[in-house]
Amino acid sequence: MTRNDNFDIRRGRPGDAADIARLFLISSDGLAAYIWAQHAQNGEPVEEVGAARYARSGTAFSYENCLLATRDGATVGMIHAFEMPEPDGAGPEPDADPVLAPYAALEDPGSLYISGLAVLPGLRGQGVGGALLDRIEALAQKQGLPRLSLICFERNVQARDFYLRRGFSVTDRRPLVPHPSLHYTDGDALLMVRRVPGTEDAAPRRAD
Question: Disulfide engineering: 50 pairs with which of 21, 37, 157, 167, CB 3.0-4.6 Å?
Answer without folding.
Answer: 21
